[in-house]
Every structure is written in C-alpha cells, then in structure tokens.
Amino acid sequence: MLSKTGCSSHQPAMESTDSRVQVFVSLLPQAYFAEKVGGEHVQVSVLIPPGADPHTYEPTPQQMKDLAKADLYLKVGTIEFEEMWMDRIVDVNPGMLVVDTSQSIDLIDQDPHIWLSPNLARQQAQSIYQALITIDAAHQPDYQRNLQAFQGEMDQLDQYIKEQLKNIKHRELLVFHPAWRYFCADYGLEEIAIEQEGKEPTVQEMVRIINDAREKGIRAVIVSPQHSTHQAEAIAGDIGAEIITLDPLARDYTANLRQAADELARALSRD
Ligand SMILES: [Zn+2]
C-alpha cells in the first residue's frame, strides 16, 4: 500500500512488488502453520521474536508500521499480549482481517497454549485456510492442497508422539511455566505448574510443590528457554528429578515436538 502523502522514492521496493498475502502472527510456531498452509502465496511476519516472553511482549514502533500494511492477523486467541495490544493494532490497520485461530477449540480454563497440541494445530490450520481463501480466493486449490499436506504431517506427528510415550512409567511432570497442558491432555500426561498465576512461587509454595512432587515420584521437571530455571533446578535437585529443557515457542514445530517426545519418553521411563 502506498502512503498518500509520502514521496514515492521513500517507499521500499518490496511494498509495491510483493503481491503475496501479508500475514502477521503473534508466535513463531504459528508462522510454521501459516507458511505451511500459505506456501508461496504468503509472506509471514512474527511479532514476538525468539527468546521474548509472549505474555509480556510489547511491539516495536517499526512493527506497528509494518502491521499497518498487513492483510491478515492470526491471533492465538487468549494470550495476554493480544489482549493488551489488539485494539491498538486494529487502530493502525482497520481494514486488516483479524482471525482468532482458537475459534473452534474448546479452551481449558482459558489456557492460551493451544499450539502445543498437534491435534489442535490441525484446527488452527483450518482457521488459517479459511482466512486465506477469504483474502485470496484465486489460490484456493493451492491452499487446500497445502492444508491437506499439513494435516497429514500433524497426523504423523501425533502418531509418533503416541508411539514414543507408549511405555512410560510415570505420567506426571513438573513444569516451570505451564505451557504443556493441551499436549499433556492429548497424551495422557499431567502437568503440575511450578509458576503460580504467572509468578515465581513463594518459599511456602516451593515446600508444598516439593512435598507433592516427592509423593508423586516425579521424574521430570520441564523448563523453557524463555524463563528462569533457578527454582526448577532447586526443586529437581531436591526430589532427584531430571531437568528437561523444552521450547514451547520453537519455529520448527514438528522437529521440536518430536524431540520433546523423545526427551519425555526417556525421562518418564526411568524407575
Ligand atoms: Zn506461555
């Protein structure tokens, strides 16, 4: 889109030549979904960069400028960042289509981490497909073919995770930042949060968590690269559990979840 007042020589060449659908997502794994479904017809930008915390992130002025030129925003659904910023994002670009990719999903207690379930990723991809054919009906057959391929990839991933976790001995795990609830729900695991309401636990809460974990024979404590590991390490040391680093926000979605399944299977198979 050309600015009404700007001198044309100031416009980057890409803006006028790029006919692809300009898509914005909040999180890196959503970029994976959108690129798989959109293929060559989309240009996907991610608002929350690697290493940043999606619960507290604030967009940069440059990102707000780029958002003003976008065609489509794909929301995770209930993540704090979107609740804080969506009104302002829509203000800079009232014509942009905004789609909530959690629209067909039954949320558990408004937990936003729906992308970590391959089954729910399939539903998010369906919403992405609907949005893309609304904006770019001419390429509907391509989007449909891409969607089918993606659904197949998710089916295989789901099978792989089930296979890996088939013979584990322990089903409960401690998680510092509780991002894995939908994943756990799909694969018969139970996530116990160390963080309390998004905050580090108090000393009393730590004692309760450690006693609870010892009683349950917890073998694995999950930490993520976006959060401090100090308290999780203290708890793991106390109860003789293994620290496992799993990234809930890796861009290479399928490879990341395969690796997560491998690591969990190993730790949860210990006596
Ligand atoms: Zn989170």
Q: Write the H/E string, N to C.
A: HEHEHEHEHHEHEHEHEH
Q: How much β-strand is present in the residues?
A: 5-15%
Let me know the average pLDDT. 92
For the record, the count of structural domains works out to 2
Please state how the strands of the largest beta sheet are arranged side by side. 2-1-3-4
CATH topology of the largest domain: Rossmann fold
Helix content: 40-55%
Secondary structure tally: strands = 8
Given this structure, which CATH class of the largest domain is correct? Alpha Beta
CATH superfamily of the largest domain: Nitrogenase molybdenum iron protein domain
Report Rg: 21 Å
The CATH architecture of the largest domain comes to 3-Layer(aba) Sandwich
Count of helical segments? 10
Distance between the ends:
61 Å
Largest sheet: 4 strands, parallel
Structural class by SSE content:
alpha/beta
